[in-house]
Every structure is written in structure tokens, then in C-alpha cells.
Amino acid sequence: MRTLIMAGILLASAGLTQAAEPIEGNWKTESGETASIADCGKSFCITLKSGKYVGKTIGKLAGAGNAYTGQVTDPENDKTYEGSAKISGASLKLQGCVLKVFCKTQTWTRL
Predict the structure, then answer these.
(1) Separation in Å, CA 40 to CA 36, 44, 80
(2) Which end of the chain is flanked by fewer CB atoms within 10 Å, N or C?
């Protein structure tokens, strides 16, 4: 009976970890800081966890699977851009654009 209960707990906890979106977690930015992406309601908030701007929320993205859209903010100048993110394996390609013409892209790595 004890083995059956433990197996049920393990299966339930495995289901919970699979329910998280692939974008959630900690990421290393190109500049070496750590950013955390977490569920914040109907979107995913990007918050810096290390570096000069620790604690600053620098984006909100919505989506599922491996494609997300929303807004990203450059913490250096506090300007906000239309953003998108795509996940490929342990990499997150994050792009911010002005008028969908002038874009800047960074690739982050999952920690």
C-alpha cells in the first residue's frame, strides 16, 4: 500500500512539472545576468535576478509552447519595445523591435 501511495505522489508531481510552460525558469542573458521568467497571471514576467538592475521587471510575454509575444524593456534606457521570444532546446531567442523594422535580438541560455 505504501508503495502504491508513493507511486501516486511521484506521478502527480511529474504531472505538475510538465504543466509548466517551457519559458518558465532561470535564464542567463548575453550580458551574463540571470533573468527569471515566471507566470504572472495571463502572461509571463521577466525579472532580473542579478546585475545592476536586480529586481527590475523587464518584460511581459504571452503565448505557449515555444513562441511568445509581448513587450520587453531595455533596463539601460528604460525604453519598451514590442517583443517576441522563441525557445529552441536550452536557448531562448528574445527580440525587441521598434515599428517591426528596427530590431535587436539576444539569445539567452537556460540555467
Answers:
(1) 12, 5, 18
(2) N
Place of cell 548575453: 30
The reported pTM is 0.79
Q: Is 74 helix (H, G, I), strand (E, B) or coil?
A: strand
Give the SS3 label for residue 19.
Answer: helix
By three-state DSSP, how is residue 11 classified?
A: helix
Q: Any residues with CB less than 8 A from the CB of 81 and at least 6 apart, and which?
A: 71, 72, 73, 74, 96, 97, 98, 104
Helix-strand-coil percent breakdown of the chain, rounded to 5? 15, 50, 30
Return d(Cα 63, Cα 32) in angstroms, integer: 26
